[in-house]
Amino acid sequence: MTMNTLDALFKPESIAVIGASSSPAKIGGLPIASLKEHGYEGQIYPVNSKSEEIQGLKAYKSIRDIKGSIDLAIIAAPGKYILEVVDDVIAAKVKGVVVFSSGFSEIGEEGARVQEKFVARLEEAGIKVLGPNCLGFMNLQNKVFSTFTPVIRQGITKPGRIGVVSQSGAYGAYVFALARERDMGLSYWVATGNEGGVDFSECVEWLANDPDTDVILGYMEGCKDGRKLERALEAARKAGKPVIVTKVGKTELGAQAVASHTAALAGEDAIFDAVFRKHGAYRAHSIEEFFDVAYAFSVAGLPQSNRTGIFTVSGGAGVLMADAADEYGLALPELPKPEQEKILELVPFSAPRNPVDITGQITNDLALMSKTMKLMLDSGQYDSLICFLAAGGMGPLAKGMVDQIIEVKQEFKNYPLTVVTVCSAETRSILEQHGCLVFEDPTRAIRALAALAQLANLSGDCSTSIDSELESPMDVFKLESKIYTEPEAFSLLARAGVPTSKAILAKSADEAVKAFNSLEGVTCVAKVVSPDILHKSDIGGVKLNLANQEEVRQAFNEILSSVSSNQPDADIHGVMLAPMESGELECIIGVNRDLVFGPVVMLGVGGIFVEVLKDVSFRTAPVTFVDAKKMIFELRAAALFDGVRGRPTVDVDALAKTIVRVSNFSISAGETLDSLDINPLLVKEKGKGVVAIDALMIGR
User: Fold this and answer.
1) Confidence of residue 253 (pLDDT cuts 50, 70, 90)
2) Is the dihedral of CA 613, 619, 623, 625 positive or negative?
3) What is the structure's pLDDT at 372?
4) How do residues 642-664 score in pLDDT, each as one tens digit?
5) Would you say 32 and 88 are in contact if contact means Cβ atoms under 8 Å apart?
6) More confident residue, 595 or 20
7) How far apart are CA 388 and CA 499, in angstroms?
């Protein structure tokens, strides 16, 4: 999408209101009243076949009668007239349309057909469509109020640099009201309604390129085009504009749970989490967090890291904040000893480690604040600083405390820090003017700062590649619509560069012995080979630690006997012989094809227990080497990769390369790959690689 295509829609210099009303309380009247009241400088053309004048403005029988050019048409007429109105709009050469009218896809199939028909006609004429069944939008910068939400009758918020996009009109109106109450300035506010034309993703991408917007707030209920959403989020990331999203709904897509661990775990919610993480968006889980993070970024920007210092005048509050920092992932490095000693010289009974508790002694000497904070920042240990003022921030000492903070901020203005103060709203505006955040609740301050640190990490460049050849997809190929046997899956994966165990198929006991001999006498594993048996060990289809010919022959016969007893109708291809492999850690790499986002790659730990542990990370394909490493260290068990209790460090780079190769495989197979589990994948000691021990591949 070219970035200027929505300009005429969201930045109109002339607006026609079809179905205009003289009553500001009605759908067709509120936009006109709001435009006039708040000083819209463009042309307003009311359209009403029964009136000569609307709210002091000349009214037109039809939009066709308007002589001037029209950037935007607001359709507030009843839905039953929509096709007739669309003909008029096209004839008037309008550039953008907002459709308030309802009675379309939200009511059923017939309404959906009408919606599809009229939107197609408008888009064929080059007209962008917002809606139908939407509350419209507001452009606070240019005083455009193309909405009938009653929330603006109680007042509007000031122009600012936060853009809001909501798939729910009611939720969007609530967000607008809260922004107004918190005195947070907005650039644009958009409610997308049925999304017959312009959708959530287009709005986000347009805001990512809008010079008046620095941060984007989004409310999502669903998505029809996953790749389009990813492009929009990536555009925002590259523009350095954080996207803070509230995504509702936690539907699980587990129809193939019996066949595939990945399919069982790759629910809709997990995939959206992965998409947001991949493209640097932050997912908020409450309206409070939604606003706190946006507010924090709009005032203070992003810190360089999560290393945080806590300055407090209350030991109890320091403990509370330290606990919150641990919960939300803020690092609290200890203040170096020389700085601790200097603080103890200032206040012998202080606690100087971090949190630094200077105690209530500041009531006798406010300068202790700035001296201590400067020592903390001079240490170089912290990229952000939180200052808890307790009751002092609300009483007669407040001004003096604020002066101390501003002194520090001015001296360290080139220092990459975010100063967060916790005090009353009375001092908020003064501190915010100097780039300081103000919270009354210390836990909210910690959470907001942790979110900023996470955004700084997520917003980094994920495109760096160590090997362009590694991240180049294979030639396109098609899988058959079947469940592939393990040797077949190994053969295909080997073509993609995935290290697999050497597997030999035997159809008789004699062939099994011959296969064992060809493996030069190494200890082997024997497994039944059948597309009908997905979990072989459950029915006695696996024998381990086979060390000689007699054990191999016996294992072959016992496997066939056990399988025949437990699953007599299974199509048995034979028994596979492979060397017993050893490694430091069992992982799973899987792929599931999502209807919205396409192939989704999963990494997990636990082998057969992956669904019990649920320690997994997801990314949509393609996955870069850098993002593959991020997947690894997102796991709760990430510490195991560095070696614990004397165990060696494992080959993280080989694991990351394998994730990338599986991602490439999924792209090359395209829609013919339904799901894939490599489970277990043994990760060996650093420098010794990985090896796939088992694989389940389903084509479609």
Assistant:
1) very low
2) negative
3) 96
4) 887 778 899 999 999 999 999 99
5) no
6) 20
7) 54
Residue 567 has pLDDT above 60, yes or no: yes
Residue 12 in contact with residue 144, Cβ under 8 Å?
Answer: yes
* Residue 251 reports pLDDT greater than 80: no
| CA–CA dist 429, 436 (Å, integer) | 9
Nearest Cα neighbor of 437 from 405, 459, 411, 469 is: 405
Q: What's the CA gap between 82 and 300, in Å, rounded? A: 47
Residue 252 pLDDT greater than 50, yes or no: no
The partner residues of 602 in beta bridges, in order of sequence, read: 590, 618
In whole angstroms, what is the distance from residue 428 CA to residue 497 CA? 58
CB–CB of 492/683 below 8 Å? no
Closest CA to 40 of 21, 17, 22: 17
Name the CATH topology of 1-135: Rossmann fold (3.40.50)
CATH node for 149-300: 3.40.50.261
Residue range(s) in the chain whose domain bears CATH number 3.40.50.261 = 149-300, 303-458
Placement of tokens 């060390």 in the chain: 547
Any residues with CB less than 8 A from the CB of 32 and at least 6 apart, and which? 17, 20, 21, 24, 44, 46, 54, 55, 57
Q: Is 607 helix (H, G, I), strand (E, B) or coil?
A: helix
Architecture of domain 585-699: 2-Layer Sandwich (3.30)
CA atoms within 13 Å, Cβ hemisphere of 182? 22
User: What integer pLDDT is reported at residue 515 of this predicted model?
Assistant: 94
Q: What is the DSSP string of 277-329?
A: HHTT-EE-SSHHHHHHHHHHHHHH---SSSBEEEEES-HHHHHHHHHHHHHHT
Closest CA to 29 of 157, 195, 153, 165: 153
Cis peptide before 622 (omega within 30 of 0): yes
As a three-state string, the secondary structure of 336-360 is: CHHHHHHHHHHCCCCECCCCEECHH
Give the C-alpha separation, 203 to 245, whole Å. Answer: 13
Of 631, 308, 626, nearest to 453 by C-alpha is 308
d(C-alpha 12, C-alpha 6), whole Å: 10
Fold category of 502-579 in CATH: Dna Ligase; domain 1 (3.30.1490)
Give start-end residues of each CATH 3.40.50.720 domain in the chain. 1-135
Q: Where in the chain are all domains bearing CATH 3.30.470.20?
A: 585-699
Q: b or e along 65-95 (b: 16 or more beta carbons within 10 Å of the residue's beta carbon)?
A: ebeeebbbbbbbbebeebeebbebbbebebb
Asked if residue 677 lies in contact with residue 592, where contact means CB atoms within 8 angstroms, the answer is no
Q: What is the 3-state secondary structure (H, E, C) of 98-157?
A: EECCCCCHHHCHHHHHHHHHHHHHHHHCCCEEECCCCCEEEECCCCEEEECCHHHHHCCC
- CATH number of 303-458, picked from 3.40.50.300, 3.20.20.150, 3.40.50.261, 3.40.50.720: 3.40.50.261
Which amino acid appears at position 271 of this protein?
I
Count CB neighbours of 462 within 10 A. Answer: 19
d(CA 698, CA 700): 7
Which part of the chain has CATH 3.30.1490.20? 502-579
Tokens of 574: 């034979």
Sheet containing 14-18: order of strands? 43-47, 14-18, 72-75, 96-99, 128-130
Distance CA 486, CA 504 (A): 10
Output the average pLDDT for the chain: 91
Of the candidates 111, 163, 153, the residue with the CA atom closest to the CA atom of residue 132: 111
